Amino acid sequence: MNATRRPRPSREELAACAGRSIPPVIAPGLRVLLCGINPGLYSAWTGHHFARPGNRFWAALHRSGMTPRLLAPCEQDELLGLGLGITNVVDRATATAAELGRTELRQGGERLREEVRRYSPAWLAVLGVTAYRAAVGDPKATLGPQEGRFGPARVWVLPNPSGLNAHYQLPELAAKFGELRAAALD
Predict the structure, then answer these.
(1) Residue 9 domain-assigned (yes or no)
(2) Residue 115: in which H helix or E strand, if any?
(3) What is the pTM of this model?
């Protein structure tokens, strides 16, 4: 085993992470607050956002030009210096986002609205159109910029970067992230 790599968790260790949360990477006045649906069990095990191997978040962020290099999940705090942050709609870790109900997503949307009011990012970028629709009660929302604001923030919806989302491969995902970068950071 490579001494610099953390061992993989056992099934029991992952199962024990159900319900855990990961603190947001957030500060006042960010350019973009990226918002996942909820932490997966692997991310909860590591304590870092989008940590599961196969999740394309970090690669899409870099390929889009939002980060100068490919960051590892354990380097998530470096986002703050780039004007970026990470949070989630729902704090509770689950094996899949399908375990979240509409009520929990709606409550998460209200908690997220308060977080956005408190920290005032210029943009809120939600990663997953289905979760966004449920969290804010907008069944017609599509990918891209949204008409209204979420508290003080303008809103952009991006595809979910999970490896389970077969609709978008990494090049297309990075291109969608790049559209946000062009609007929010250029």
Answers:
(1) no
(2) helix 102-119
(3) 0.94
